């Protein structure tokens, strides 16, 4: 398998990207890497060229650029070139820590959607922060690829999440829930009520009902399906609250004198464990599911370790052929009832 | 001033409701209370009848009941009777810890909207959890009274929040922000982009732009305006994450042996302070703003202390005449440009 890597994207690119890629290369003998980036910046940083080649590009898409315009005009950028390699079959997956919008646009317009998927969903694996369960994580989509969604999009997200949970997280029969504004079945606006019904009536989905954002991290399901708008708000509020609480604790310790500092030292293992549960770098990158190949975006702040973990995730996606499962389902098997085939290529 | 109290609503009703009301009565010599509840349950619990009378009712709306149906059929329930007293001018405000939907429905259909307000917004005062600022709290609406909102609703929420921040939180010129899926001005779906423009163009509002849910508790604004759908998701995710993190810490301490327990004892003041910042009972109840009188719903789990704090909040609303300010603005002053007057009574 070959992974096309955007070596230029991310706060610590290209150093940390290359470092992480080399670590992953040493870990997985079955992966080859094509690194897309400028000759002068990338070449000197490569330590070992085994199963790793630089493909020189001349342009870079910066973090602040308007995504669609950027991928249309910067044809020789690392993002566009890497995505094009996947499209042409020269690579099997695309990895980037760069401009999220540009990565999503390159995925959507260059790599392309699976037939039968109207809108891909940006997918994260999130931690279950519940000490009373052994469940460690769950699949959450759409985290914000689509600001506006329709019923059929959410049903497709349920299938995309199901296959991902089965193949990558090894959950035999994933429990699927819908993020809604109440737990009861009659909750939600018209759209969410309709989605509840569609998911509930689908015999191929193990639908366990609505889940509220208060219970997102409790581990009530293996896949939580949401529209990109509220999914984005809930995920960001989760991240923000975790961050603010840690900062309150830190501030309290720093201003609590010797007593608090001693308390911190004694509780350090507890805090480390929580940091590990809540930390982003252990959960890989965000996958734009619904495309013809794995397109995975990791945090802009990623260092080598997070890059390596995200490559592991891509390795698992390719090994388990999760995309093939999706293609087969949407291409051959019965489609969700409400898929409007006429708009597939719209 | 007289407050109509639903003595029957809440997990600890009527005991804790009455206890909290009596505490507030002893604190504020200018408040009289009418307690609506059943003779046999409420009468024996009243310790002192000074400025406090029981108005006997025969029905109770339970937590699980369908709200609109309940207020239509249970005419002699504490919720319907208390709301009706406000409508008839027999009381100045309505307080309940009961069935949220029924309280909102009673507010909307019995107490009634202010002329010019299309949809009231459920409003919470939330903590700023940022140790680097002196700002302690901010106004957040709509937390979920409306599952579907239009542009004009959000502009009205901005005004409702502004008056509340000015009068109740004593912020002279409240900074107003819009909860959106990105900080930049071009972010959001069509609706949020349009709201951004309306708020930005309004010279009467000190609009400071978009705020993302990651920064909700950072204190970037005094009023955060949101549609009820994403506002609900972000608020619930915030509550859920805070709760899960505390439970992870607790679990870590309980399972960390003597060392962790000692560490906890030393850090106890830090945890108490965080508990105080993040705790719900210090911030009063949720106010359905946009109605002709204060209609305030406090957590179902409220004990006497939370009841007393919520009465303080109502006292402040009545003393500062925040509702009058709203009535004057929407009745006499220029209305936000996009208010569709024809639908006011719709």
TrEMBL record, chains A, B:
GO biological process terms held by the UniProt record: fatty acid biosynthetic process; phospholipid biosynthetic process
Reactions accelerated catalytically: a fatty acyl-[ACP] + phosphate = an acyl phosphate + holo-[ACP]
InterPro entries xref list: FA_synthesis, Phospholipid_synth_PlsX-like
Protein name in UniProt: Phosphate acyltransferase
Organism, scientific name: Paucilactobacillus wasatchensis
Principal location class: cytoplasm
Purpose: Catalyzes the reversible formation of acyl-phosphate (acyl-PO(4)) from acyl-[acyl-carrier-protein] (acyl-ACP). This enzyme utilizes acyl-ACP as fatty acyl donor, but not acyl-CoA.
Assembly with partners or alone: Homodimer. Probably interacts with PlsY.
Subcellular locations according to the entry: Cytoplasm
Keyword Transferase: yes
Superkingdom, taxonomy of origin: Bacteria
Lineage of source species: Bacteria, Bacillati, Bacillota, Bacilli, Lactobacillales
CC per GO annotation: cytoplasm
Annotated pathway: Lipid metabolism; phospholipid metabolism
Keywords: Acyltransferase, Cytoplasm, Lipid biosynthesis, Lipid metabolism, Phospholipid biosynthesis, Phospholipid metabolism, Transferase
EC primary class: transferase
Keyword match Lipid biosynthesis: yes
Record-stated family: Belongs to the PlsX family.
